[in-house]
Model the fold of this input.
Amino acid sequence: MPDPSTTYITGRIVRTDVDADDPNASAEAMIVENGLITAIGSRTDVDQPAGAKVVDVADGWILPGLIEPHGHPSVAAFQLCYAVVDIRPVTLFTADDVWAAIKKQVAAKSDPKAADRWVFANGWDPLLQKGLTAPTIGELDRVCPDIPLLIVHNSGHSLYFNTAAAKYANLTKDTPDPADGSFGRDAKGELTGVGYEVGAVKAVAGPFLASLAPKMPQLMLTYLRDLRGKGITTIADLGWMAQFNPLIQGLQQAAGGTLPVRLRTYELSEPGAKASVPLDNGDDWFRQVGIKLISDGSPWVGNIATSFPYLTNDATKAIGLEPHHIGKANFTKEQMVAICEQYVGDGWQLATHAHGDLAVDLTLDAYEAAITKHKLTDHRFRVEHGGLMTPEQFRRAQRLGVTASLFVDHITYWGEVLEDDLFGKTRGGAWADAGAASEAGIAVTFHNDGTVTPCEPLRNIAVAQTRTSRQGRKLSGGTGVTRDIALRGHTAHAAWQLKSEGQIGLLKEGNYADLTVISVDPRTAAPEDLATAQVLATAHAGVLTST
Done:
């Protein structure tokens, strides 16, 4: 009699937790019982169980299910939905294209019979969309005089808005700046239609997001299904908020009970707050594992905390920077230590956005204070993005037990911008130095950060090795990692960072048979062939679905 609980999977199986030259690096068969791997090895060593369902993966190579360790699915589901104008530089390439798309939506939404009578545009980037200049609130009022208009920078760390949008968000000249952001104001204190940092973005964009709340389960379901089609079987949400907690039940109902991908969330920190859920929460499909802090901002808008100035040129002028501009951190050391303390005593893992070298120092100082005070060992605190993190800072992080997730795909799209426009070849060329992280002994991972770049884990793996932009420039500084290490950045290392190595990320006995099948051998394919490889199928708990 067939045994519905047992599956015998055969094919070219790649075990990414060991190096390619290890005898156990490849396998030919695995047995999956009730979703868990119970045996893996050669066909000779792993016999087909009587009555098992047989799945022969004749095409492609089988990997552990790919993991996105730093995404933003709760926000990306909104940003990429039907109601938002997609003006990202991967979609529109010129200033004229951007303004044409915005004005077209303004015309459509100005119709009194239109639904959702507001315009939300996401993806503004004057560094790649040459000719864009920062609009004033008066200019936006002329473009869109009657309904709210909001334009969010591609980084998510700044935005522009018209008078109607300020009214829609209940903002006035008397509205105080948020703790983790600020609003532009003129000499009389009036709002100038610009907001800086995540706190300001949340304050203005929140009502727009809230207006679509009833539709969010379906919007997020659509987004998660798209992620799975790109090979992602687990994603971390590094922008989770307490108000999203009820979304999970609606999402599960919309999905028919089982989510398209597993979710691990990090709740955004707030000064003086505590986590909205207990440390022991959720299950292997959905679980909050940590808390997110933001020590500085985005390199593309000038608000990362560095010990040196940005370059002074036409590009930095176009993003509104004064000559010899130096960005600053969002918090003082005392404030960062206090925010960490709000959560560490309850056992939470911390993950902190830090790009500039001073922001990394600030983050490590705050972490060290918490680690020392609470005598922490296996805390797995994280540095997120780490654009200008230096080799010595990686070594210090390793000594503290701190890990890092690097945004190497910045190199793909902004490699030339980093070297020529913002930081020069020495500093910009060493951006997201994965080789230095690995050399320091850090279990480094890679990510795409929501909608900032397309979700493309296979390209991340390639560029972590080559450090080459889409225009073919190999950055002047920094070092790449081996293919073995790069593969772990979206599998074994990512699972470990998410405190889920006992469930996912490794093809070993006792773990879920979460799998991704791709069209090339991930160990030997040329970098560009790997970056553009086709995802043929994915699996959760051994149940394969073609993409």
User: Anything to note?
Assistant: Residues 240 and 267 are 5 Å apart (CA to CA). The chain has a mean pLDDT of 96. The longest helix spans residues 357-374. The chain has 18 helices and 21 strands.
